[in-house]
Amino acid sequence: MKLSARNVIKGKVVKVTHGAVNSEVILEAAPGVQIVAIITRQSAESLNLAEGADAFAVVKASSVMIAVE
Amino acid sequence: MKLSARNVIKGKVVKVTHGAVNSEVILEAAPGVQIVAIITRQSAESLNLAEGADAFAVVKASSVMIAVE
Amino acid sequence: MKLSARNVIKGKVVKVTHGAVNSEVILEAAPGVQIVAIITRQSAESLNLAEGADAFAVVKASSVMIAVE
Amino acid sequence: MKLSARNVIKGKVVKVTHGAVNSEVILEAAPGVQIVAIITRQSAESLNLAEGADAFAVVKASSVMIAVE
Amino acid sequence: MKLSARNVIKGKVVKVTHGAVNSEVILEAAPGVQIVAIITRQSAESLNLAEGADAFAVVKASSVMIAVE
Amino acid sequence: MKLSARNVIKGKVVKVTHGAVNSEVILEAAPGVQIVAIITRQSAESLNLAEGADAFAVVKASSVMIAVE
Lengths: 69, 69, 69, 69, 69, 69
Hints:
Chain A is mainly beta. Chain A has one helix spanning 41-46; strands at 2-3, 7-18, 22-30, 33-40, 54-59, 65-68. Chain A has a single domain (7-60), classed as CATH 2.40.50.100. In chain A, 9% of the residues lie in helices and 59% in strands.
């Protein structure tokens, strides 16, 4: 499946925390670059996300803001 | 200003494309890791975003999806 | 690729309108059920989206609101 | 009230799961077409969402991605 | 129609700028409090949004971030 | 840090509710104008959000819808 999302970033799962409805997944995309996702718990479980798994962070370009110092 | 957004990723602007209302900004966070943002043109102009500028991509964790192969 | 997005809805593209930065894509998921997406023009072009194409609308569950009459 | 959201899809609630802060609501828009929403628990309760209720899924067009096989 | 969105803020339209696909709408919710929305041009036109019109800004709670100084 | 988000609205925290993964934060921007945010619990804790704290609601313009009566 090919996605319109412009941001598909490869990484490795470093932490998964489950809540009742949502789960927090932390992905390491590169040394020092971590990406945090909140997805439904059902998705986290159905994707078998666990520490060490290969995964992608997917972000629609319109969800990205830019900041400058 | 300290933000609740869990994802604040440092990079360098590599391309800016302006539309009438929105602009597309491409940031390089690491070699081979590019992040694309669609922001309003007024924001792009007021932040002086141009090729070579230092900037951060900011993404709320709830806007991030996860995919696996 | 398997996605955490809970909503992956199959349909057929019925209209594509291009702007400078964004494109509007209308998908028919079922008779009388149309879904409208705004994606970047580059994505629309790279996915070869045109009238009649098979495609999926993908929506993260946290982006869906509920309304009642 | 008339909304700018381009996607307002009629359906019937088939499942509600409550967490501490958020609730997951599954709506059936057509046979085989289910839409999942994560909304705050307070909203789910104030809208009296329960199995069998008529409801609408509301999605802003900029939150919809497109995928092709 | 009653919405799950927790933020429905009353205001007056102070400016509308049209692009090919999207329009930018600025609403004044209170003296000194302006809210900017990017919606599809078709929505802006079908809602007859123009300077001086009464309108509401609608924002899902999961789309709001918090910042502190 | 200067943000591309067009909506940065000053207020005072009036309520914080914690879930396992997410927290709900209610900000009062003006008398009668409250803004509700769902952020990760870790963000709420790291920003020391508590009743009475000064804070800003930050919303990307593309996340704002418009409604009219």
